[in-house]
Amino acid sequence: MLIQGNSVHTPRKELEIGGIAWMRLTQFKSEYFKYQEVVCADVFCGTGRNDVQGEIVDGSPLRIMNAYRRSCNNNVNFKFWFSDILPEACATLRTLIPPQSNLSIKTMAAADALNALGNYLHKHPFTLLFLVLDPNGPKDFPRQEAIHLLNQYSPRIDIIPYISATTINRCIGARDKGGITFKGWLGSIENFDEGFVSMLVKHGRMGWIREPIQGDKQHWTILPTYGHFFPKSDWSKQGLVDVISDRGRKAIEFYNGNMGGCNEGI
Ligand SMILES: C[S@@+](CC[C@H](N)C(=O)[O-])C[C@H]1O[C@@H](n2cnc3c(N)ncnc32)[C@H](O)[C@@H]1O
C-alpha cells in the first residue's frame, strides 16, 4: 500500500482542509443556498493517508468524506470526485473508502479532471462545485484550465486552493541566487491586481488567506478558502484573514518574498 510521506506541517493542512470542508458543507444547508447538487472534487487526491514521522494522518479525501458525514447535510445531493495522476495512489485510496454510487476515484491528470468537471457543470446548471486543489507545486498545476473553469463557472464554484508556501519560497531562493524572475503561476500570484489570487475573489467569491506564523516562515500553505458565503468567524482565530484586507495583502507580499510586509508576531 502506497502511503504519502510528509512534513510536520501536513497534519495542520489536513485539519484545515477537513475543517473548512465541514464549514462549507454545513453552510450549504442554508436557506440561501440555491443549488440542488454539490460535487466535491479533489483533483490531486493522493493516497488518502500520510505518514508523518511514523504517525498516520488522514489525507484530504478522507477529510472531505468525514466533513460530509459531520455536516449532516441532507438538503442537497452530494457527489464525490477524487482523482490523481498516479494509479497507485488511486488504488490505495480505493482500499480506504468503501465504494458507493455517488463516489468515483479516477486515475487522471488534473487538467483533464478540470475539463471533465467543466463539462459536468455545463450539463448540470443546478450543481455547485466544491473544488480542492492541492498540487505538489506549480509544475503540476494546470493553471490555464483552472483559470478557465473558475472564470466560466465562477458563481458555481467554491474552492480550497492549497498552494504551498514552501514551493514559492524555494523559487524565491532561486530568484535571489540566480536573478531568476517569477514566471507563469508564481508571477501571477505575485501580481495581486491581475493574478491568480485576484481571480479567485472575482464574481462575488470571498477569500481568506492564512497569515504567516512566527517561526514557520517556509511551510505554511497560503490560500485556504474562497467561496460565496462568509466563513464562520472562528476561522479568524485560526489565523485566516480576508484576502482583500490590509492584513491579507501583507500576507501575500510576505509569501512572495517581501519580508518587510509581514507581521511576524501573529
Ligand atoms: C500534495 S499531494 C496531494 C495530497 C492530498 N491532497 C492530501 O491532502 O492527502 C499531490 C498529489 O498530486 C498528484 N499529482 C502530481 N501531478 C499531478 C497531475 N498533473 N495531475 C493530477 N495529480 C497529480 C501526486 O501524485 C500527489 O498524489
Walkthrough of the structure:
There is one protein chain. The chain has a 5-stranded parallel β-sheet with strand order 6-5-2-7-8, sandwiched between helices. A 3-stranded mixed β-sheet has the order 1-3-4. It contains 10 helices and 11 strands. It has 266 residues and is of the alpha/beta class. Helices cover 39% and strands 20% of the residues. It has one domain (4-257): Rossmann fold (3-Layer(aba) Sandwich). It binds S-adenosylmethionine (SAM). S-adenosylmethionine is lined by residues 14, 44-46, 50, 59-60, 84-86, 89, 109-110, 134-136, 140.
Q: Approximately what portion of the residues adopt beta-strand conformation?
A: 15-25%
Q: Which CATH architecture?
A: 3-Layer(aba) Sandwich
Question: How far apart are the first and last residues' alpha carbons, in Å?
Answer: 39 Å
Distinct ligand kinds? S-adenosylmethionine
Total strands = 11
Low-confidence runs of at least 5 consecutive residues: 259-266
Rg (CA only): 18 Å
- Domain count: the total is 1
Summed over residues and divided by their number, the pLDDT gives a mean of 83
The description of the largest β-sheet is: 5 strands, parallel
CATH class division: Alpha Beta
Order of helices and strands: EHEEEHEHEHEHEHHHEEHEH
Helix segment tally: 10
Share of helical residues:
25-40%
